[in-house]
Structure formats: C-alpha cells, structure tokens
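Continuing the series of single-chain predictions for the mutant panel. This is the parent chain; the variants come on the following pages.
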Amino acid sequence: APIDIVKQIFAWVTDPGFYKHVTITLTETVLGYVIGTALGVAAGVWLGLSRGAYRILDPFIKALNAIPRVVLAPIFVLWLGRGLWSKVALSVTLVFFITFFNAMQGVREVNPVVLANARILGARRHALLTTIYFPAAASWILSSLRTSVGFAVVGAIIGEYLGPRPGSAI
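Parent structure:
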C-alpha cells in the first residue's frame, strides 16, 4: 500500500545508518563516474586521432563492448574483493564505453577544412587539440556525460548486490 511505502521511506530517512550507506554508494558512483569519464575521453581522443591504432584495436574494442557489463561484476569481485573498488570498477566499465565512443566520434567529426586552415597558420599538435579537436568534440563528450551519470549509479548498485558490504542495497 502507498502508506506503507511512505512509512518505510520515513523509517529509512530517520535512521542515521541510512546516510552512511548512501554516502558509500555516492562515493562509488562518483569515483566510477570520474575515472570512467577520464579514461573514456582520453582513450576516445587518442583513438580518434590515431587511425593506425584504431584499425589495430577496433576488433578488441568491439569485442569488449559486446560483453554485457553486468557479467563483469562477479569477475571484479573476485579480482578486487567485495570492497569499494570492485563496485567502482563496474561503474567505470559502464561509463567508459559511453564516453569513449562519443569522444572518439567527436574527434573524427572535426571538419578537415578547419584542420587544414589551422595547419597552414602554423598550429602544432597541442594547439590543434586545445583549439580545434576538444571544442569540436565537446558537444559529443558533454552528451555522453549526461547519459553516463545514470550508468555510474547502476554500476554501483549492481556491484553492491553482488558484493555486499557497507553501502549495500541488501
């Protein structure tokens, strides 16, 4: 009944232990989000700029992306234990691929005429990254950041179901 749900929510909110668990879950979520975003953007920009590395790594990336991330959760629990880092690792994998593919596509969508003009004006690699590639890929990256917040939360909660410790949903 709805009144029972309201009573349970009130009981949780008034329990001081509830906030300890919420803090741990939010910590896992934020760490997974930040690490996954940093790795995803870095790898996406790198492979977006490096055609040779992309051609070599493309089959491996597609194979890794095809694996359901939830299947990786028990592996992370075995490798990293039931503590914080196994849950963070699951969140990282969920966030990584979203930001990775968007960052890579954003870098690849840069207008070649703009790049040629910048090179004619003497822009070096660092200047191209900061003034052309990153601004052009920013809309792609920012759209992935919005989507990946939910995935970071899902990764932390699924990790808590598989490796219960403080902060766990069970």
